[in-house]
Every structure is written in structure tokens, then in C-alpha cells.
Amino acid sequence: MEGAALLPLFLCQNKCMNNPYKKLSLISLLLALAACAEDAPTEAQSVAESPASQIDLIMLGDYVVSMDSESSVYENGAVAIDDGVILAVGPAKKITDEYSAAETLAGDGRVVMPGLVNGHSHAAMTILRGVADDLALMDWLSNYIFPSEVQFVDSELVRIGTELACWEMIRGGTTTFVDMYYFPDTVAEVVDRCGMRALISSTVIDQRSPDAESAADSIQKGIGFIERWKNKNSRITPIFGPHANYTLNAEQLQATRAAANEHGVGISIHMSESLFELQYSKDKFGATSVEFYESIGFFDGPTIAAHMVWPTEAEIAILAERQVGVIHNPTSNMKIASGISPVAQMLEAGVRVGLGTDGAASNNDLDMWEEMRLAALLQKVDRMDPTVMSASTVLNMATRGGAIAIGLGDTIGSLEAGKRADLIQVAFDDVHHIPTYDVISHLVYVTDEQDVATVVVDGKVLMKDGEMLTIDTARVTVEANALAAKIQAALNERNQ
Ligand SMILES: [Zn+2]
Asked: How many angstroms separate the alpha carbon of residue 357 from the centre of ligand 1?
């Protein structure tokens, strides 16, 4: 508005100063100025006459929780969005005076906040949800998950499983996820269609996998995937996903890092997850995981390290210094009994920490609200200190901090002018939100997936008032159940 009001005055000054008479008397100058004043609209006229800027979308809310650096919360707030970008965040009246939107999402009884960032997942494993539970990590991986994957996982399973996962994540308010699975082109095609944002890893593992024969083969295939998807779609970032240091040797891990650096992409990996890994790393490499990775130059490039349950104090310093993005997966760590990650200690040391669900076969859902709640509760009981992890710290890990941890801190994670428009509306009309004294407390300790009403990614509405707009949920349901029936029949046959 200020710009619009100033513009006529600026034109007027030019017009006035273009007087052909070089020497103006005081009187003629005053007369000229008076003429100018007549030409210039009054401020009231200017407001009435200058139409509000036409934009794509306004999202309203009883509260807008921006997660900006000042943790600004606007009561009766709004977010103005155009061409996928946030133009302004502030009081609703100011935004609606300034902008006229093609679509306005009403915000009565709703809280607006950034979309959630799921920093570690294996999306397609929704198809294997519940196939094997209540087992130790290596038993679960070696005797159930890896064999099941080699037998059943193909591009079709990945398509259906990823669609299920995107449906579940959008429904629960997740707008960005970091994925590690097989057939990454298929994952990328699904993400492209459903409208989410994702970092998609091409898995590197030193064993026969559903889409490669060996580590070298998986690196080569990963390079192909990265060349196909780099700079193709601004919502999709292809990366490498070396599995872990117990499924790859030092040379293979170094080769993956070299390929990632050569192609200008990051890496997502499992790191320091279990006591098994700790011992394996000591036996094989003579050092615990983080020190081993540091010793081979693995952190010479963007790294997202999932789990990080067992870092030593010296390793925490390495993670902070090397700006490794650590993803905490409390449910998976509890379910597989991997241990309690020293999240509070890492945050105190300046490590970038985000949150993730891990795959649906070890969680068993993709609910980031549950991860937030468990992240807070686990740290409190572990340290026997209820002050150690506040609701706002946890909310930050699921939004702004998570975005920083996965390397998208400049693009998403908070509601600020210039960032991409990834945001959600959470309905606060369910009984568990009545009454609400503190919105942040409710978002972390009360809200669940079903409270999420509307989801926008890159300015596009993916779910509106609970209705999925980019996924044919009826078709996906039929396909998932049909595929599960085949898997169940084959498992029954194998177990006979
Ligand atoms: Zn994982």
C-alpha cells in the first residue's frame, strides 16, 4: 500500500520539476506545488481507488503459528500466497485489505502452521505394515524385511505403497518427506502427481536388492536416477541413500559420497542406530560409526543421518561441526528397542535435529504428531527432567528445524514472505481442543492426524476440509488390498 500511495507523488514531482522555466519565483513554485496537490489523490482516495493485488490464495486462521525466527503467532491471522510463494503473513484484516485472492480458505476454529517435515521414511513400506513386528532390528531386517523385499518389491508395489504413504502423510499434515527405498523413479513419479515435496534417495546397498545386484550397480543406477530428476521438478530433490555401514564397506560408502558430490546432491543414511551397529563398527572399522564416517571423509557434503541413537560426546561435536542433519525417529527406536537418542544433548551442542517416522513397517504409521509427542516424552523420562524438551522445541524440530536438517531451511519450514507455500490448517473444534489456553502446547501434546483439515504444498491445495484432491483414494485402497492378498498368500506358502 505504501508503494501505491507514494507512486502518484513521485510522478507529480517529476511533472512539477519538468517546468520549462529554469527560475521559478517562490510564488510560481507554490502555485506549481498547489497544482500538484490537486493532481495527487488524497490518501483516502488512493486506498479506495487502488485495487487490492490479485493473488492465488489466502489462508485464514484463528491463529497463524509462523515458526519464524521470532516465533511470531498472529491471532486472527492470514497467509497470502501467489504462484506457489508466500507473499505476506500477518493479521487477517491487513492481508485481506491488501490482497484479493482467487480462493480464500476460511479459518474459523483453525490454526495455520507450516507443513510438517518427515525427515526419514521408507514410504512404500506401508504395503509391508504389520508383516513382521516385535523383533530385534537385525532379526527383523535379515529374516523378514530383506527377503520379503527381494521377493515382493517391484515398481508396482512401490507405486501403490508410495501412493498410500502420500495419502497418509497429506492427511496428517506432512508436506515434505525424505524417502529411502527402491525404484526411486516410481517414487518420484508418485510425488510429482500427488503434489508433495520430497528428497528421494536412490538406495545403495551391498546385496541383491529389488532394483540392483550390488553396491556398484546401485550407485550406477542412482546416478541415472539423479540425472533424470535433478532440476526437473522444484518439489523433487534426488539424493543418494547408502543404507548403513553394516550393509556397505568403507570403499562403497566413499564411492557413494564421491558420486553424490560429483552430481551435486546430498545423502541420506542410517547412522548409529543400534548397539549391533556400534559393535559392528568397532569390530570392522576400529571406531564407532560417526568417527568412522568422519575418518573416511563421508561428511564432505550434505548428509542426513537417521536415528543417531548412540553418538558419543566427541561424535556429537563432529555432527555439530560438520552440520550433519540428524533425524530422530522416536517410535521406531522404541519399537525396535534401539535405544533413546540423546536429542536434548545434541540440540544443546548445536546439532541440526529434525524428526521422522521411519518406514511403516517399523512404526507402524506415518504420524508426525505422534513423533512430536514421543520425542518430548522420551527425553523427559530419559533425563528425568520435564523441562528438558519443551513443546516449542519439538514443534521446531518438526517444521523449521527439520527443514534446516534436510537442507531446505531457505525454502520451507516456516511461514515467511519469500518461502514456498507449504502450510496446513489444523481444526481446533474437536473435544480434545476445548478449551485451548496455549496453541503450541495443543499442537504438540494434543493434536493428531485427524485434526488436519487442509494441506497446501507449493501453493496448491492437496487436501481441503479433509478431502484428498490429488489422490484417488478409492483406487489406491483396492490396489493395496489386492496386492496385500497376494503377499499374504505367498507368505503363507513360504511358512508352510
Ligand atoms: Zn530407516
From this structure: 8
Per-residue pLDDT tens for 132-181? 888 888 888 888 888 778 888 999 999 999 999 999 999 999 999 999 99
From the list 208, 162, 197, 195, the residue with the least C-alpha distance to 181 is 162
Residues measured by CB to lie within 5 Å of ligand 1, the ion: 358
Cell of 282: 568397532
Alpha-carbon span 41 to 24, nearest angstrom: 25
| Contact between 368 and 357 (Cβ < 8 Å) | yes
For the four alpha carbons of 32, 34, 37 and 38, in that order, the dihedral sign comes to negative
Gap from CA of 355 to ligand 1 centroid (Å): 12
pTM for the full model?
Answer: 0.89
**In one letter, which amino acid is 34?**
A
15-53: pLDDT as tens digits: 233 333 333 333 443 344 444 443 444 444 444 446 789
CA of 43 to the centre of ligand 1 (A): 59
Q: Would you give the distance in Å from CA 44 to the centre of its chain?
A: 44
Taking the centre of ligand 1 as the mean of its atom positions, its distance from the CA of residue 370, in whole angstroms, is: 17
Distance 495 CA to ligand 1 centre (A): 26
Q: Are strands 110-114 and 53-65 parallel, antiparallel or unpaired?
A: parallel
